[in-house]
Amino acid sequence: MSRVRLQKRILMGTVQQKCMESTDAAGHAEEHSRLLNALHAVAKPLSVNFGQRRLLQEVLAGIEQQLNLERCTVMLLSVDGEELVFEAAGNADSEVSQTVSYRKGEGVTGRVLATGHAAIVPRIAEEPEFRSRIHRRESGTNEATGFVCVPISVGAQVVGTLGADVPSQSASRMERVRRVLSIVSCMIAHDVQLRRQARLRYEMLEKENLRLREAIEGSERPGNLMGNSRAMHEVYRRIHQVAESDTTVLIRGESGTGKELVASAIHYGSARAKGPFVKVNCAALSENLLESELFGHEKGAFTGAVQPRIGRMEEAQGGTLFLDEIGDFSPALQVKLLRALQEKEFQRVGSNETISADIRILAATNRDLETAMAEQQFRNDLYYRINVFPIHVPPLRERRDDIMILADHFVERFARRMGKPVHRISTSAINMMYAYHWPGNVRELENCIEHAVLLSNDRVIHAYDLPPTLQTPEARGSAASPTLKARVNLLERDMIVDSLKRHDGSVKKAGAELGITERMIRYKIKKLNIDYRGLFRKTSKTSSS
């Protein structure tokens, strides 16, 4: 070979080497440019006050586009710190299952959570631990796709993971992606942690607010009364206002609304709680017998009075006298009662001895006393004497939100009394109860539930177990409840119970299916008075909740 030809070959080799170096430099420059663009795609959303999910979606979409990645996904630590839950994915058009979770050590993602170290999977198809729960991958995709997952850490604490599919099997390419994702995870970690702490603080404040609200309501609500409707809270407020005084109270409301329970709550909430609580049904006795019942009598005062007897007013000394159905007093007896109330003293029938009365008067009626006064059937002065502090007890048709609370209470009571394991009311039966107008109010509801519990044979009260009075065409309709709030509560209750039954009582799984948090499910169980222990007694100890 001549010297000239050798020099030409050396020159050509030098040129080729320079070209290769130039190509490598151009490749490095391009990769550097992509990295900068990817970091810019991450930094830009961080500078805008987005919500967390939208912010992460913007970040993931940006790095997918700039780094040629697929299915970028962020999973964050749950409140209890035991598992990862889905938070955001980059490609909004991909089919994503947002209800999945990974426990510590479960699959590749769970392993990253447990160890705090990144994981590189060169081929998804060859990795036995890869679960592929979140994204739907086309057939054959796994053969040519790798996976990189890095922890999102704040200090030594792992608060989430960032994973991505890498359409390449080059080891150097996978390592570069890992380094870039690690940088991205560091950039979003602080924001994720701050938002997580803010969410935890918000949930703690929400729980505390709920606890305080329940404590306030519980402090005003007497133990013998039930109901969360606005009308009943007004009754509780009035009871709380008047209980500690000796003020005369007139309790008004239809028959069966629970006026006697209100009177009992006032007495046992007063300073006279240790004294007697004496009840007199004024409608059940004749005029002569009622006078003797109230004031007592001496021996021989009338035919049949073979021995002296103290009256209910004397019996109630130091306590409270409850005059039920005071509107049925005769005009003559109204005069004597008025004197006793004004002077705080009375005389037994057939006696001239005056007895002082250290008593508090509570009266109740279902009559329209104003109309009775206009018709001169009730004395004006007695009306103004007893109507010092009126309390109106609403009929059941005006507090339909309380129907299920009362019904569940009566179901529990009668099931226990009869020794029958009845734990639930069917939707059709609930519809009937909401549709019915309840002329007998709470007393009628109580009797209906007793009837239904007696007939129930399968732990459930069905529509056909209810009395014939409720079996109306209107009650069988699907839109039985007349109020939006009652319908929503009924629908929520039905959906939650059905979901819990499908998942053997698992609160977590029911919440995932319904698209709400486990905390919200537990709140709804309490608010809607779902008998969780009764329904899932056998599974509640082992269910994942």
In short:
The chain is an alpha/beta fold and 545 residues long. The chain is built from 18 helices and 17 strands.
Would you write up a description of this structure?
The chain contains 18 helices and 17 strands. Helix 12 crosses helix 14 (441-455). The protein has 545 residues and is an alpha/beta fold. Helices cover 48% and strands 14% of the residues.
Spell out the key features of this protein:
single chain, 545 residues, alpha/beta, Beta-Lactamase, Rossmann fold, Helicase, Ruva Protein, domain 3, 3 domains, 18 helices, 17 strands, disordered C terminus
Please outline the helices and strands:
Blueprint: H1 3-46, H2 52-67, E1 70-77, E2 83-89, E3 101-103, H3 107-115, E4 119-121, E5 146-154, E6 157-166, H4 171-220, H5 230-242, E7 249-252, H6 259-268, E8 277-281, H7 287-295, E9 296-297, E10 309-310, H8 312-315, E11 320-324, H9 331-343, E12 345-347, E13 354-356, E14 360-365, H10 369-374, H11 380-386, E15 389-392, H12 403-418, E16 424-425, H13 427-435, H14 441-455, E17 460-461, H15 484-502, H16 507-514, H17 518-527, H18 532-535
Parallel strand pairs: 7-14, 7-15, 8-11, 11-14, 16-17
Antiparallel strand pairs: 1-2, 1-6, 2-3, 4-5, 5-6, 9-10, 12-13
